[in-house]
Amino acid sequence: ILAYATLGVLTWTGILAVAFNYQRQESSVVAGTFFALQHDPQVQAHLGDHVHWDFPVFPWIHGTVNYLKGIVDISFRIRGDQGKEA
């Protein structure tokens, strides 16, 4: 029974982590930052014209987005068509 309890806790932890990451990914701050990176000439010169998420299916956003306190501290990986990543 301890194994089932551990499995249940791990499952819920994973589900919550994915849900919070999705919330960060869909925030206007992340969308605006990603849009700015895609259209920045310096980023395009370094990575290539087509900048996209490093993991296009489900990118992982590290950090916090707290609108109430005005705190945004995020990081994520991007890749360009030159094969470089940042």
Automatic annotation (TrEMBL):
One annotated GO biological process: mitochondrial respiratory chain complex IV assembly
Give the highest taxon in the source lineage.
Answer: Eukaryota
Native organism: Piptocephalis cylindrospora
The protein's name is Cytochrome oxidase assembly protein 1
Q: Report the InterPro entries cross-referenced here.
A: Coa1, Coa1_fungi
- GO CC: one term? mitochondrial inner membrane
Q: Which Pfam families match?
A: Coa1
